[in-house]
Amino acid sequence: xxxxxxxxxxxxxxxxxxxxxxxxxVSFLVRxxxxxxxxxxxxxxxxxxxDATVPVATHLRADIRPDYDLVLLTCKxxxxxxxxxxxxGALGDSTVILPxxxxxxxxxxxxxxFGASRVWGGTAKIxxxxxxxxxxxxxxxxxxxxxxxQDKIASSKIKEFKALLDKAGVTAVVSPDITRDLWMxxxxxxxxxxxxxxxxxxxxxINRTPDGKALFQRVLETNIQIASRxxxxxxxxxxxxxxxxxxxxxxxxxASLARDIEKGGPIxxxxxxxxxxxxxxxxxxxDDIPCLAYTHAKAYEQRRAANxxxxxxxx
Length: 315
Known about the structure:
Blueprint: E1 2-6, H1 10-21, E2 25-29, H2 32-41, E3 43-46, E4 52-54, E5 57-59, E6 68-73, H3 80-87, E7 91-99, H4 105-114, E8 120-125, E9 128-130, E10 136-138, E11 144-149, H5 156-168, E12 171-174, H6 178-199, H7 203-207, H8 212-229, H9 236-245, H10 256-262, H11 269-282, H12 288-305, H13 311-314
Parallel strand pairs: 1-2, 1-6, 2-5, 3-10, 6-7, 11-12
Antiparallel strand pairs: 3-4, 8-11, 9-10
Helix pairs in contact: 1-5, 6-8, 6-10, 6-12, 11-12
């Protein structure tokens, strides 16, 4: 199997690097500056599962040809349009795309552009970042990829990719219903992103306020109702686990969207908060908190575009 990874950031760099380290045929489609780093020093990983320096094949957009079996798409949602243009030259007649984006909104866009039969769904459970020196720093003890075809058929290509991940030491799960899995992750992500971005605080700090725990449960319940009305009701064990997770007063958990706001970066406002608000209204559910969170995010984006962020965030 010939694999192309778009980008070499925290997620794509880590999983693509582990695949390359195990001998898989992996190339990275990157920009010039990142290509120079990788060509000079290799792909560098620091991780609980072992540090690695992996020589990797790199390409610029102009270099790619339509001869890949799988394209791993690990961009942020706000870069999706450009990413789709970028990978188009790599797609042969049988190439499939595995997006590892947050939420579910990207599937519709990818399906419209490339066709649902060649777009898998996937989620990555990992915390990883890229340092300024290009080193990928794995921040937790999870490196789990869950993926599957939208038609729920475990094809030979899916089984082959799982075997490569198994060989690389990555925890690989073939989902029997990946769309449901994506919705369950969105219930989770939508809850933590809504409140930690809105309050500019982590879950524990919010829960230690007089009304924080009640707010978390209210947002979680709204997202559960959205998923249920979309045809993906969470099971009781899922609900119980997240009610407990979002009630912990000592938690330091916060969404990456909140961290991106704190550092003055671009955010996935439309793809996560906007999408949930639209679905909330479509199903006639109370929309006061989703509306507040989305409006806050869009106002932030205006200030960022006008270079009027506080000095700490803009630094």
